[in-house]
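Appendix B, example 12.
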Amino acid sequence: MDVCLFAGAANLADQPSEPRLDELPPRTGKSITVVLLTLRVRSVAAAKAGIIGMTRDLAGLLSPMGVYVNAISPGGFGPRDIPPGFVKEYSDRTPLGRMGRDGIDLKGAALFLASPASDYVTGQNLVVDGGFTLWR
């Protein structure tokens, strides 16, 4: 789903002389939000919760029109410019024993959510973190 499409639909719904959101022609599509925040954000937990909450709300609003809305929450990915000590400590706290691999480990989740295999999945947050949140 294109963000502009939703913004336009929201504007139409707010104007009584225009068609309401539920009167628009049915559309189909899949929206995948990647909830990726850096440590520079002061309240990462609150920001992620807000994005996940928005995903669920949009799913409730748009799913009856054939638009699936889901999110992916990745764990730590690297090693890019991450200090080796951090990579080791993070990996030691992760059941899979490593950080996520850039350009590799999110592809399967995105492919699943974009494919017909997820045609009964909406409003969900798929955590791709190597099991990091299991032990927290």
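The first strand starts at residue 29 and ends at 34. Residues 1-16 have pLDDT under 50 and may be disordered.
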